[in-house]
């Protein structure tokens, strides 16, 4: 893709998610979510992004399996467009959070977006490491269930069977597509140290370290919220029945 195509794809993505966010605001909203309408719209928009990019990333490797053997040079217009499309979303989401939340509430995600936009931007501009960026986007497979979890909680469905099933799938895909993927990417960087320029290696290593730390913290929060707390509540109920 030429620079003009990258700008067009990124800009089109930014505009698409802006319109999608506006469209969500016109749809019926659960009464329990009305207290934070912005968050409902933001998560719903992020859910759609995850669905699109998760499917797109899998298709990239399915249509061009040789890209998995060379994450530096090998890529297609299809995969290049995916990374450009995702940049547009992350730029949109960055400004959406800046304009609607206090910095103290969203600094972690804002920092995450800055790292992603920088790394993905270098990739599409240099036409290198596109395969590596597509691997990174495989985490969106988990994001589908992560965002669905938030949507269900905002809709007061945290006690439903759907929520419990989603929680289990969410935790499983979290380990496979977030923690394992990040570990694999870190390992790839170390093994290919001699093929990666110092700047790209430093940026990638720092980025991976930050992402790994953030994801481990989030995993612990999810585990405690959806499983450990519920187990504690069930134990208390059983004790009350025995009494």
Q: Explain this structure to me?
A:
The structure is a single chain. The protein starts with a helix and ends with a helix. The protein is an all-alpha fold. The protein is globular.
Which terms would index this structure?
243 residues, 0% strand, mainly alpha
SSE arrangement, N to C: HHHHHHHH
Whole-angstrom Rg: 19 Å
According to DSSP, the number of beta strands is 0
**Low-confidence parts lasting 5 or more residues at pLDDT below 50?**
234-243
Shape: globular
Mean pLDDT: 88
Estimated structural class: mainly alpha
Helix count? 8
Instruction: Note the main sheet.
Output: none
Distance between the termini: 70 Å
- What share of the residues does DSSP label as strand, in percent? under 5%
Helix content: over 70%
Brief synopsis:
This protein has 243 residues and is mostly helical. It contains 8 helices and no strands. The longest helix is centred in the last third of the chain and has 45 residues.
How is the topology of this model organized?
Blueprint: H1 3-25, H2 37-63, H3 77-100, H4 103-126, H5 130-136, H6 140-154, H7 161-191, H8 198-242
């Amino acid at each position: 893709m030429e620079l003009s195509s990258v700008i067009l794809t990124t800009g089109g993505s930014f505009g698409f998610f802006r319109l999608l966010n506006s469209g969500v605001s016109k749809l019926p909203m659960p009464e329990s979510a009305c207290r934070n309408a912005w968050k409902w719209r933001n998560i719903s928009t992020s859910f759609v992004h995850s669905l699109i990019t998760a499917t797109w990333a899998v298709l990239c490797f399915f249509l061009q399996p040789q890209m998995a053997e060379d994450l530096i040079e090998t890529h297609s217009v299809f995969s290049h467009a995916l990374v450009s499309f995702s940049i547009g979303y992350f730029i949109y989401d960055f400004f959406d959070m800046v304009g609607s939340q206090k910095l103290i509430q969203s600094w972690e995600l804002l920092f995450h977006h800055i790292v992603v936009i920088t790394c993905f931007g270098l990739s599409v501009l240099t036409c290198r490491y596109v395969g590596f960026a597509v691997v990174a986007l495989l985490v969106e497979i988990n994001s589908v269930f992560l965002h669905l979890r938030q949507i269900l909680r905002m809709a007061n469905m945290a006690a439903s069977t759907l929520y419990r099933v989603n929680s289990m799938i969410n935790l499983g895909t979290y380990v496979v597509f977030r923690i394992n993927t990040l570990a694999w990417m870190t390992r790839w960087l170390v093994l290919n140290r001699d093929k990666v320029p110092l700047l790209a290696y430093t940026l990638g290593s720092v980025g991976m370290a930050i992402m790994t730390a953030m994801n481990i913290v989030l995993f612990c929060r999810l585990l405690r919220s959806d499983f450990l707390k519920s187990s504690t509540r069930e134990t208390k109920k059983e004790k009350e029945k025995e009494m």
